[in-house]
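Provenance and format

Records in this collection were gathered into a single text stream. Each protein contributes a sequence line and a token line. The two records reproduced below are adjacent in the stream.
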Amino acid sequence: MLPRLLVPVALGATLYLLPSPAGLDPKGWHLFSIFVATIVGIILKPLPMGTIAIISLLISVLTGTLDLGEQGLVGYSSPVIWLIIYVFFIARGFINSQLGTRIAYLFVRILGKYSIGLGYGIVLTELMIAPLIPSNSARAGGIIYPILKSMVESLGSRAGDGTERRLGSYLVQVSFHGNLITSAMFLTAMAANPMAQKIAAKFGADITWMTWFQGAIVPGLVSVLLLPLIMFFVYPPELKVLPNAVGLAKEKLREMGPMKSQEWIMIGVFGLMLVLWIQGKTIGIDSTTTALLGLALLLLTKVLTFEDMLKEKEAWNTLVWFAILVNMAEFLQEFGFVQWFSDGVGAHVSGMPWGLAFATLVAVYFYSHYFFASNTAHVGAMYAAFLSVAVSIGTPPLVAALFLGYCSSLFSHMTHYGSSSSAILFGTGYVPIATWWRLGFMMSVVSLIIWGGVGGLWWKILGWW
């Protein structure tokens, strides 16, 4: 443990003691050094992830980088954090009521002959609901996660008992990356997309829902079709053929009998949440409030108890580490580190041919997401600056605005903290952190090739450049 602990400590201390770059608030540099050390510590895992996050928060406060009351604990008040926690509890409601189990067996009955068929079923479900629900965390946690958990457990794959690779690890990865791909495909699939749309209008790129979808349809469908297949080869489940799964599912459904009262309650609550997730913006109810309403109704109807909530270790563990990382990432922006970084990139690409310069901008914009724990925060911090530089070097405004917009979902491939959906699905415990990062980097490269290559050709056919 000690050698693995010394690496992040030595790296963080070295960066911290270096002089702050010219034009950057020293607090920004100091927080960056602590953040980098935290991420390295989480990857090397000398201590549990929550422990590392708490120690990092302590160091931030003791060094005077963050004030505990006004800055250090702000992440715990974030609505996005609590949305993640609420959907963990709501998923328990699906399990308690047995509705999740019933849906899982129905899923297996239809697609359960091969594990890759289940993978395609999950990603196609994401594709169908993505345009309707403008929250990737609501889709991943409130809809896909309960079904996925019930399905893999019914087939003998559980987190923490050595059976993760049997099926669960594969389907978690397919679900996670599929969630990001579908978030990129539709203007209404992710909260940061409309933000990018508004910013783009200031640079002469008029983006409608149909324009966004028209540009995304070809690279998006290619990604959706390839994802389960790619994961099947690079991270295969132990169960590839499920010869008895369909018969088992039919038998279990017969044993379950007709729908019970708690299942009907769960359907009613879920239906209400679905309507509010789709229409909430027009009536002033956000995704987190919708999840809180659903949770309260499940508690009132006793589908869920407070004791059930206390037993959800994954939820409380996620609350501890994710809130701290989100907070540190937000204060990197607050202290000017992100703006300093963006300005430096802009200065380095000036004078290049626009194609090469734009490719460089996209790569930096994409991989700078290692420093963010929120898609929306990243878009708010860097989208306008990078779009401005892209347009100024001669990139067609529509191509620049849309490609950077698509990247604003896809750049969450890499880490377990890059979006709220990643925190939810990583929290299931099916995929080790080192594997998550390795597969995430691989998928980031695949996505850039598909969306930059296939997408670029498609946009050429459309006459956009």
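Adjacent record:
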Amino acid sequence: MIEEARQVHAAPAIRKYIVDLVEATRRHSDVYLGASPRASIMILRASRALAAAEERDFVIPDDVKTLAPSALSHRIIVTADAVMSGRSAEVLVREIVDEGGVPIAESP
């Protein structure tokens, strides 16, 4: 199954989308310490596995959006002010995902 997931295609736009989401965790004002570049690799791997599980040979933006909160929320440290106002890491990651631009399929 691991080898099958490795064969799932992730378009350059999807890869950029993942990198942009991870970088956004490092720029968010309520995040003290954002996700590392390694988080990008983990989201890509998980997105490929999800696509394979759904019998697709390509990753779609919804794969990334579905997995990002779980994959990133434990990889960031939220500021004390955010915690005191009741904003968890998962809430902040969901905000970042919702605010981020979703890639559009490229024309052949």
